[in-house]
Amino acid sequence: MKVISVAKVDKEQQSKPIFTGSVTKQAIIDTSLSDRFEIIHVNFDKGARNKFHTHSAEQVLIVTEGKGIVATDNEEIIVVPGDIVFITANEKHWHGATKDSTFSHLYVMAPDSKTTLIEE
After folding, report:
1. 118, 92 in Cβ contact below 8 A?
2. What is residue 93's DSSP assignment?
3. In angstroms, what CA-CA distances link 51 with 14, 28, 54, 90, 114?
């Protein structure tokens, strides 16, 4: 058994083309601990988000802080702490902070899932 304090996990600034605005990630459970799933804490500054993309495996988002948006081509949903979002494999979506709030979520996903960026 291992207990991990999210507050003690280093935040890594993200500069990948999938993100707009300032975003950090914290690897809570990665391939050093599990070959079946990963859990990453993602932190978005106000108005920051990722671009439309898909994953080859299902993704679960667990909202931990702030107010965010999870969107598909057809809808945008405001999410807050305690909300859990299930995104099916290959579903086109994006998620990020609202303009007036920071936003953080944990994501749970298979570590071998492939992400495809759709929006340039």
Report:
1. yes
2. B
3. 13, 23, 10, 14, 15
CATH 2.60.120.10 assigned to domain 11-115? The reply is yes
- Cα(first)–Cα(last) distance of the chain, in Å? 42
Q: What is the pLDDT of residues 95-114, one digit of tens each?
A: 999 999 999 999 999 999 99
Tokens representing 88? 């099916």
Contact yes or no for 95/71 (Cβ under 8 A) = yes
Q: How far apart are CA 87 and CA 57, in angstroms?
A: 9
Length of the chain counted residue by residue: 120
The rounded distance, in Å, linking the Cα atoms of 98 and 8 is 26
Map out the domains of the chain as residue ranges: 11-115
Question: Which residue in 104, 26, 20 sits closest to 66, CA to CA?
Answer: 104
Is 0.85 surpassed by the pTM of this model? yes
